[in-house]
Design a protein that fits this description.
It is built from 17 helices and 22 strands. By secondary structure, it is an alpha+beta fold. It has three domains: 191 residues, Heat Shock Protein 90, CATH 3.30.565; 117 residues, 2-Layer Sandwich (Ribosomal Protein S5, domain 2), CATH 3.30.230; 164 residues, MutL, C-terminal domain, regulatory subdomain (Ribosomal Protein S8, Chain: A, domain 1, 2-Layer Sandwich). The longest helix is centred in the last third of the chain and has 19 residues. It is globular and about 125 Å long.
Length: 618
C-alpha cells in the first residue's frame, strides 16, 4: 500500500492555525495590540473600518524591527519571547507562541512598516495569503505600523459566519477595553470609520476606568488594596447599589493579562453576599500580581484562561480583601460587639476638662399660690398662675340636666357632610357585578363557560405593551409627554454607541432627545405613562438587553426595543389591581394578535375546566 501521510504545505498549515488564533476581527485587534505593548510603546493608535472586515491598523511608537526581524516575524513559531521550554513558566510578556502574524498573513492582505530608532530608513513588507508580494525600503517614523485588510478574503465560508458590523464592533471594543485597562501608563486612541471612538491619555488606574466607562463611574468605585506573600491585589470594586444586570464591567488581570475565571468570580460574589439585588452582578476591576512560576497561561488558544497552582488560597484572599474594603468604606454593615459608637467622644470635646454638674433649686416655689413672683436665684423660669375656681366652674353653667330639653336640643343638631364623602353613583341605582378576582397579587382569575381562566398579570401586561409599542414604532405616531425640566443622563462611549443605533426607534416610541453627544443624553419628552424617575432604569435595562441578545444583521432592533420596554414598563408581581384594572387588562390581552404567549414566548394564561375540578373530588 502506498504511503498516505504527508507534510502539509506552509500556507495550509498557517490557515489551520488561523482557525484557532483568528476567530473574528477582534482576535486580530487583540494580537496586534499585545505585540505593540511588548514593543514598549507609549502611544498606540487603533484604526478600524467596517468593524474590522475592511481594515484593522495598529500604529505604535515602540522599538520597531530590523529588516531581518521584519521578515522573520511572519514565519511560524518565530518569537523573541522564549528560548527554552523553561521560559514558558516565567513569562512577563503578552505574545510568545509566534503564531499570530503568520496566521493573520495567511487569511488577509497585510502591510507592515517598521523602523528602529538608530536606523535612517525603515522596512515595508506586503503579504497576501502567506505569499510575500513586495519588500522595500521606506521612509517611516520610529515604531511599527501594521495594516490588515480584507480579512478572510481567501476563506469565504469563515467570512460568511461573521456577525453584523454592530456585533463585531462590540467585540473589538471589548478587546480594546481589556488591553487599555491593563496598561493605564500607555495612551490609546481608537478610530472607527474615520470618527474617534476613544481617546485615552496616560493616567492612573482610576482615571483610566472613568475615561472608558464615563464620568458617572467615579462615584461607584471602592478601592481594594492587599499584599501578601502569595498574591498582591490592587484595583476597585463597584458599590452594591450600582450593580448591573450584565457582567460587562467585570475584569480580572493577572500580571497585566486579562483572564476569565468563574472560580475567582465566585469569590467576589461571596464577598458581596447579602448586598446585591436579585439578578445583579457586581462591577470589579482587579489587578492580581502573582509569581509567574505559579501559573500556566498556555492552556487556552486565546490565553484568557490560566491555571493556578493554589486556587483555594487565592479565593480566600480575594474574598477577604473585597469584604474588608466594603466594610472599611462603610459600604457593608459591620457588627462589632466590643465597642458602642454612642460612647465615642466627639472631636470638639476631645481634651476638654470635665466639669461637675450643678443643680439649682427654687426653694420659694409654691404651686398653690395664685401668682408667683420671679425667683430670687437669678435662674430663668416661667411664673405659674393658678386659675380661680370661678373661671373653670363657669364653663359648666347651663349644662345641668333640667328635664329633656337640653338633650332634645342636642339631638336636633345636624352636621354638614363634606361633598367629597358622597359616592359618585347611588349604590342602589347601579348593581355592580364582580367578574374577576386577583390571587396573591399575581394572578387574575375569571370565569368562563367551561370553567375558569387564570392569567399571569405581568406576562399579560407585557404582551399588551409589546404589541402597542410595535404599532407605535411602525406607524410612527407615538404620544409623548413633555418634561417640565430636561433630564440629563450620562453613559459610557460603548453605551452611547448602542443608544445611537436605537435613537430613531426610541423617538418613535415617544422619547424626545434634545442632546445626544459627549457621553450625555438630554431628554425633554418621554412616552405616556413612563415616570420620569424610571427613565434611567429603563434605558439601562435596554442596554443590558441589547448586550445579552447580541442581535445579528437578521435581527430587528425594533422588536428588541419593544421587548425591553415592555419588560420594564409592565406591572410587576405583587402589585394590587382594582376590579376595573383587572377587567381592562383582561380585555386588552384578548384584543392582542397573540394573547397566549408573552413577548419572550412564555404562557400568559391557562384554563381549567369543570371536569378538572370534578376529578379532584373523586
Amino acid at each position: 500500500m502506498a504511503d498516505i501521510i504527508q507534510l502539509l504545505p506552509d500556507h495550509v498549515a498557517n490557515q489551520i492555525a488561523a482557525g484557532e488564533v483568528v476567530q473574528r476581527p477582534a482576535s486580530v485587534v487583540k494580537e496586534l495590540l499585545e505585540n505593540a505593548i511588548d514593543a514598549e510603546s507609549t502611544n498606540i493608535k487603533l484604526i478600524v473600518k467596517d468593524a474590522g472586515k475592511t481594515l484593522i491598523q495598529i500604529i505604535d511608537d515602540g522599538k520597531g524591527m530590523s529588516v531581518t526581524d521584519a521578515r522573520l516575524s511572519f514565519e511560524r513559531h518565530a518569537t523573541s519571547k522564549i528560548r527554552t521550554a523553561e521560559d514558558l513558566f516565567s513569562l512577563n510578556t503578552k505574545g510568545f507562541r509566534g503564531e499570530a502574524l503568520a496566521s493573520i498573513a495567511a487569511i488577509a492582505h497585510v502591510e507592515l512598516k517598521t523602523k528602529q530608532e538608530q536606523d535612517e530608513l525603515g522596512t515595508q513588507i506586503e503579504i497576501e495569503g502567506s505569499e510575500v508580494k513586495t519588500q522595500d525600503v521606506v521612509v517611516t517614523p520610529k515604531g511599527t505600523s501594521l495594516a490588515v485588510k480584507h480579512l478572510f478574503f481567501n476563506i469565504p465560508a469563515r467570512r460568511n459566519f461573521l456577525k453584523s458590523n454592530n456585533v463585531e464592533l462590540r467585540h473589538i471594543v471589548d478587546e480594546f477595553h481589556r488591553v487599555a485597562l491593563a496598561h493605564p501608563d500607555i495612551a490609546f486612541v481608537m478610530f472607527h470609520n474615520g470618527s474617534e471612538s476613544f481617546n485615552l491619555p496616560k493616567s492612573n488606574y482610576r482615571q483610566r476606568i472613568v475615561n472608558i466607562f464615563g464620568g458617572k463611574t467615579k462615584e461607584k468605585l471602592v478601592p481594594v488594596e492587599e499584599e501578601t506573600e502569595v498574591l498582591k491585589i490592587s484595583g476597585f470594586v463597584g458599590k452594591p447599589e450600582f450593580a448591573r444586570k450584565t457582567r460587562t464591567e467585570q475584569f480580572f488581570f493577572v500580571n497585566n493579562r486579562f483572564i476569565k475565571s468563574a472560580y475567582l468570580n465566585h469569590a467576589i460574589n461571596a464577598a458581596f453576599e447579602g448586598l446585591l439585588k436579585d439578578g445583579g452582578h457586581p462591577s470589579y476591576f482587579l489587578n492580581l500580581t502573582v509569581d509567574p512560576k505559579t501559573i500556566d497561561i498556555n492552556i487556552h488558544p486565546t490565553k484568557t484562561e490560566i491555571k493556578f497552582d493554589d486556587e483555594h488560597t487565592l479565593y480566600a484572599i480575594i474574598r477577604s480583601s473585597v469584604k474588608h474594603s466594603l466594610g472599611q468604606f462603610n459600604i457593608a454593615p459591620v457588627l462589632d460587639f466590643d465597642r458602642d459608637k454612642n460612647l465615642d467622644t466627639p472631636y470638639n470635646y476631645e481634651g476638654k476638662r470635665v466639669s461637675n454638674p450643678s443643680v439649682e433649686v427654687d426653694r420659694s416655689f409654691n404651686p398653690f399660690q395664685e401668682e408667683k413672683s420671679p425667683s430670687k436665684s437669678g435662674s430663668f423660669s416661667t411664673p405659674y398662675k393658678k386659675e380661680p375656681a370661678s373661671q373653670w366652674e363657669s364653663l359648666y353653667v347651663g349644662l345641668e340636666s333640667k328635664g329633656t330639653k337640653t338633650t332634645q336640643e342636642f339631638s336636633e343638631i345636624q352636621l354638614e357632610s363634606e361633598p367629597g364623602n358622597e359616592p359618585l353613583f347611588n349604590e342602589n341605582s347601579i348593581e355592580v357585578k364582580q367578574t374577576t378576582y386577583q390571587l396573591h397579587n399575581k394572578y387574575i382569575i375569571s370565569t368562563i363557560k367551561s370553567g375558569i381562566l387564570i392569567i399571569d398579570q405581568q406576562r399579560a401586561h407585557q404582551r399588551v405593551l409589546y404589541e402597542g409599542l410595535l404599532k407605535h414604532t411602525t406607524v410612527k405616531e407615538a404620544v409623548s409627554q413633555q418634561l417640565l425640566f430636561p433630564l440629563q443622563l450620562q453613559f459610557s462611549s460603548s453605551e452611547m454607541e448602542l443608544l445611537q443605533q436605537l435613537k430613531e426607534d426610541l423617538e418613535h416610541t415617544g422619547f424626545v432627545f434634545s442632546k445626544f453627544e459627549g457621553g450625555i443624553i438630554e431628554i425633554t419628552g418621554v412616552p405616556v405613562n413612563v415616570p420620569e424617575s424610571e427613565v434611567s432604569i429603563i434605558l439601562e435595562q435596554l442596554i443590558s438587553d441589547v448586550e445579552q441578545e447580541v442581535p445579528d444583521s437578521n435581527f430587528s432592533s425594533t422588536d428588541l426595543l419593544a421587548k425591553s420596554l415592555s419588560k420594564s414598563l409592565a406591572i410587576k408581581t405583587g402589585q394590587s389591581l382594582t376590579n376595573m384594572e383587572q377587567e381592562h387588562l383582561l380585555n386588552s390581552l384578548f384584543a392582542c394578535k397573540e394573547p397566549s404567549v408573552s413577548p419572550t414566548n412564555r404562557t400568559t394564561f391557562i384554563t381549567m375546566n369543570v371536569d378538572d375540578f370534578d376529578k379532584k373530588f373523586m
